[in-house]
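dude i think i finally got it to work??
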Amino acid sequence: MTKIIGLTGGIGSGKTTVARLFQNKGIPVYIADEEARKIMALPETVQKVASLFGEEVLKENKLNRKQLGQVVFNDPSKLKMLNELIHPLVAAHFYKWIQIHNSFPFVIKESAILFESESYKNCDKIILVIAPEEERIKRVMQRDQLTKEAVLQRIKNQLSDEEKIVKSDFVIKNENLKETSKKISDILKFLSNLYQKNLIVNIWLILLTVKC
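look at this
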């Protein structure tokens, strides 16, 4: 059975960059945030979101992501409502995706809210990406054209790194690309050795059972 390796990190930690580095090494990576954006662009999803939060989150019959962010990230109850709508749709899509990649010993599932959504419970190992808060704030301000206050509000809505570290199997300090790449190689070596051995043992047991 294909193992699921969860990959997560706070906003601006660089988890998507890390995900791309894993992809470059030939590992199938499911980027939940990207798939969620695609799902949220579907007409039926747009209608459901508008029914929850009002027409103010729409612009020319499409979701105004910036406006939606202002609504949900300033109200935990509304953020919870949005996650409860989108998360099951992403989970169903991931289930179909992993069936396509079930010949691999393991795949990686990248998700910003892996712990908050409790989907980490379905993962065999967890990789956490962390970075200094000031660097995270700077990255997100440049990337999303947000104010520092808006970024801090989004960070506040996520679990702290300290809370995530105790639940993670691997931690990548994403401050230096060279060091990050080395850490990824070390993790891949460990996972490959672990799950390739498990695969060989499982095949041996199957053959033994058939022979008996």
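The chain has nine helices and seven strands.
im so relieved honestly
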